[in-house]
Amino acid sequence: MFQVYACIAHEHDLRLVLVAGVICFLAALTSFAAFGQARQDSPRRPFWLGLAGLVAGVGIWSTHFVAMLAYRPSLPMGYDVPITLLSVVVAIVLCACGWWAALSRGRAAPPLAGAIIGAGIATMHYIGMAAVIVSGRIFWDSGLATASVAIGIGFAAAATALQARRPQAGSWLPALLLTVGICGMHFTAMAAASVLPDPRIEVPPSAIDQGTLATIVTAAALLLLAIGFGLVLFERSLARSQLEEAQQRAALAEEVLRGAAERETLHHSLQQHAAISSAALDNMAQGLSMYDAEDRLIIHNRRYVEIYDMPEELREPGTPISIILQHIFGSNQLPTDEAGNRVALREVELANGRTIEIQIQQLPGGGWVATHEDVTEKRAASRHIAYLAAHDVLTGLPNRATFGERLKQEAAQAKRGRGFALLTIDLDRFKEVNDTLGHPIGDEILKAVSKRLTDLVRDEDLVTRLGGDEFAILQSGIGVAADAAALANRAIEALAEPFEFEGHTVAIGASVGISLAPGDGLDADELLKMSDLALYRAKSDSRGTFRFFEEGMDSRLRERRTIENDLRAAIREGQFVVHYQPLLDLKQGRIGCFEALVRWNHPERGLVQPNDFISIAEESGLIIPIGEWVLRQACRDAATWPGDVGVAVNLSAAQFKRGDLVAMTTSALSAAGLAPARLELEITESVLLHDEAWVRTVLEKLTALGIRIAMDDFGTGYSSLSYLRSFPFAKIKIDSSFVADLVGTTDSLAIVQATIQLSRKLGMTTTAEGVETEEQLRILTEEGCAEVQGYHVSRPIPADGVAGLLELYGCSETPLRKAG
Fold this sequence. Notes:
This protein is an alpha+beta fold. It contains 28 helices and 27 strands. An eight-stranded mixed beta barrel has the order 18-19-21-22-23-24-25-26, surrounded by four helices. Strand 14 and strand 15 (504-506) form a beta hairpin. Helix 2 crosses helix 7 (172-192) and helix 4 packs antiparallel against helix 5 (109-130). The longest helix has 73 residues, at 210-282. Residues 813-820 have low confidence and may be disordered.
């Protein structure tokens, strides 16, 4: 590239180089224009193709010799006339062949035609160079020579391909590409030539000198370009004139035809007017009948006959309205207002049950017209919409809006001494059933609940579905709280009975909250709120029971909401810390694992224990981000401990429901650099109640990674033994309630013994929780328990205390690393 640049900048007159480029662009533009005429003008196509080839060949030839005039080799120089003439003939012939090939069909034709033209460019140049006679010897750089041929062919092919793809866009851009190819080919080829002076070689007198040849070539090329370009412009101007003339003739013919068509249309419209009017009447959606000033029928349509099943004799013009009314209604009178005027709009119900809306309009000069519309379906739809607006779609019970209106009415009557009770009912375990058996079964349960509740109440009471699995009963006209308590008990008992659907036996149960008017208040919204507070207390104390509203319940609810809001702030501000309680390996007498226990470092309340906020976090869904943070922090801390010490982390049911537990656990291990075998995940039986198949799949994936799974609080659930067989547990943790009664209570000891023996047979490790005395530790050791955990070993400690505890138990053989 530098060699080409040096050739142009230092061995050429740049002014003449510019002249050569302008001549080349004009020749390319004229050649493309002539080719465009050849594509459009089939009879004279050979002439235009010949002109395109002639212009292109001479343009390339003149560009070469003008550029050669710009060349300054500092040696005597001339041209051999026969070879020079041969170069222009070759250029013209190959360019004409290229344009002829461009007319062929197929996607490959345009670039192939350009390649032929490019070959003509290269052939002309090197024949022209063979005509050069100089007092020296010419040596060629084969690499640059090959590059010059590739440039000429490549740009020429690109130019013809662009012209074929965008023929309407004009010829200047393809002409510019062809110009770049010609000039690029010439100057690259000139850079490839090196002249070594040789005084033995003389320029013969017969050779034409460089300046004379360039002058002749330039003059001839410009003349030819002017002629060719003029021919193209003249042809296009002539074509435009012919097109405009043809368009004018076509417009005149169209105007004549339009006038004839309009006259024909007017004639036909007059003939069809009567038929169209009749068809329009017969195709009206409403029936129509018109009467004169003496109430005699003038005209009617087909729909009118269909609505009233009108017999033939009553359809005749002149039929009195009284006879028609007698047929329709059994009466010969139209309805009138107090002034005796006919009612303009009314609805009548026919004997067949159809509802017809009749609208009457007086006509100028006497007479009147009536439209008749069958609105049976419309009125039924309106009634259905009104029903839906007031009732729950699924159960058919009055909805929350209807219930609210009735509650306000009862509250107004309570001000005059008529008391009532408001019972809010929430189904227990319904969400678990809905998630496990699916929404269709859940919907059937809701409908069955509605039926059972409706059967319990009196006609004056109101049962409603407030939304989801929450119902309410408005118990009217009661005087004592015992009436409400009796109804609540009956509702709890009725809903505790199992439901049978599609082979499934489903037991759910219900909790009830009660507020009383006027004792608890007279404001409808406040009474509903009080009932909700009582329901919340019933669900918190013991599901399957009822509670009355009591003073102070609202303050406890506010406290719960405050804790929930503070938890959200704690997540944002990172107020949680992890403490670790050791699990002592009784066989080795050393700590083999630490259980991670979250603590809340509240800015005002200090260190808050899990029992004070975990349940609220689970109900609000905040346990998911808290649990993920604990898992990640525990993995980071454990990565700094000795390699044979693991960490145990508790999982909640919400984390399983979210569906990304495996990915999140893998991410936590990877980020901390902790081996999966050092992580132990603890779950309770509540996790297994939601979707056993899904939970089993998740646990199997975690186990496949090398993570150990432990069942926490073993012995407190009704189906723990079946779970041990179905799920991949590596450890059983005996609940602290059995350990607390271990000394002096044979039942607890028997359960602990059975659990330890069972775990041995199943190949599982056993950990006893809540070990607080030496006696408890002795019994567990004698029974063969593998691990113990509790205050007798150590209370939960901050992460910075782990090192000292490991040293105390002789577990510091591998030094701890700093977290980083």
